Amino acid sequence: MRALMLEKDAAGAFSAEVKHIDASALPAGDVRVAIEYSTLNYKDGLAITQKGPVVRTWPMVAGIDGAGVVISSDHPGFKAGDRVVHNGWGLGETRWGCMSQQASLQGDWLVALPPSISTRQAMAIGTAGYTAMLCVMALQEQGVKPGSGDVLVTGATGGVGSVAVALLARAGYRVVAATGKLAEGEYLQALGAAQLLDRTELSAPGKPLQKERWAAVVDAVGSHTLANALAQTRYGGVVAACGLAQGGDLPGSVMPFILRGVRLIGVDSVMAPLALRQQAWARLAQELDPALLDRMVTEVSLEEAVPAAHRLMAGEVRGRVVVRVGD
Questions:
Q1: CATH assignment of the domain containing 180
Q2: Greater confidence, 182 or 221?
Q3: pLDDT tens for each residue of 267-285
Q4: Are the C-beta atoms of 63 and 97 separated by less than 8 Å?
Q5: Beta-bridge partners for 70
Q6: DSSP of 123-190, one letter per residue?
């Protein structure tokens, strides 16, 4: 079978290359899956381009996400022929991932795909879209309603941002999309953005408290962008933070928290419990317009995944990149 292998030789030289491997080399697992599609998330881009210390065990098969059909199962929850999706759980980091025509996985990590979502659509959503759904759920759990005020989405042309814009707009929220790609305005407006904001208004150091603008924020960027978003969030507002595209630091102040009662909610998708995953995927099946999802997607072959990862890290990709594995 074919797989995208990430390797380091004895001298530490890195390579990312599609290779033929024997299925017997797969790690132990109680569910064997024929992977039809994977996807390029930001973490995949870091790993494949070696721009971040994602991989902890060598050699590694790339791909934190995968969707396909169960070949065999020793897990009571799954049987041959079931359609499943996998997100996170250390794949592509400490355990071989899903950019491989087969994957050996733990059944406790898998979610049965809702009937209305194809394996390709599942990877068009991927961890990025599933994370966006978790962010929307977090805001709603904190009481943010469509009438609460504007919702800011940072990194809006990225995977998390694109899906977040689409989900929020369809639910009736007025979405302000922050992006460094203002030329993509038509794309973002088609997803439902009511207004665009140049990311330079958020990406530089700013005052600890600024004019109140946002009832809520979905932030996939971190660093100064997150600090400024917090400083601009209205009294009692909510910020869901899920990414670090600008950086993992938070160069801000406690003032938004103690003077405006702003709530900062961390959103993790990698180790989220099964019940939360199932709820998120069920809601994605109901609330994400398939036609809008198609607008977000670029499809590449397994061999094309490496150059696509370099384009992703160079900021040259909008929306979602689906990797066709099963051909």
A1: 3.40.50.720
A2: 221
A3: 999 889 999 999 999 999 9
A4: yes
A5: 33
A6: HHHHHHHHHHHHHHHHHHHTT--GGG--EEESSTTSHHHHHHHHHHHHTT--EEEEES-GGGHHHHHH
pLDDT in tens, 54-79: 999 999 999 999 999 999 999 999 99
pLDDT at 201 over 90: yes
Residue 197 backbone dihedrals phi, psi, to 5 degrees? -135, 130
Q: State which amino acid sits at residue 34.
A: A
Strand extents, DSSP E, 243-287: 263-266
Q: Model confidence at 184, in pLDDT bands (50, 70, 90)?
A: confident
Q: What is the mean pLDDT of residues 182-192?
A: 91
Q: Which of 152, 169, 153 is nearest to 214 (CA)?
A: 152
From residue 98, give the alpha-carbon distance in Å to each of 44, 63, 65, 223, 325: 11, 5, 6, 30, 9
Q: 3-41 burial by CB neighbour count: b if 16+ within 10 A, else e?
A: bbbbeeeeeeeeebebeebeeeebeebbbbbbbbbbbbb
Range of the domain at 180: 126-266
93 and 19 assigned to the same domain:
yes
Q: Are 30 and 104 spatial neighbours (Cβ–Cβ below 8 Å)? A: no
Q: In Å, what is the CA distance from 59 to each residue of 10, 12, 39, 56, 193?
A: 12, 12, 20, 9, 42
Q: Please check whether residue 77 lies inside any domain of the structure.
A: yes
- Return the CATH number at 104: 3.90.180.10
| Predicted local confidence at residue 214, as pLDDT | 98
Question: Does a structural domain hold residue 121?
Answer: no
7 and 134 part of one domain: no
pTM of the model: 0.89
**Structural domain tally of the chain?**
2
Beta bridge partners of 5: 17, 61
Q: Which position has the higher pLDDT, 319 or 278?
A: 278
Maximum C-alpha span of the chain? 59
Query: Is 130 in the same domain as 233?
Result: yes
Question: pLDDT tens-digit profile of 80-131?
Answer: 999 999 998 999 999 999 999 999 999 999 999 999 999 999 999 998 899 9
Rg of the chain in Å (alpha carbons): 20
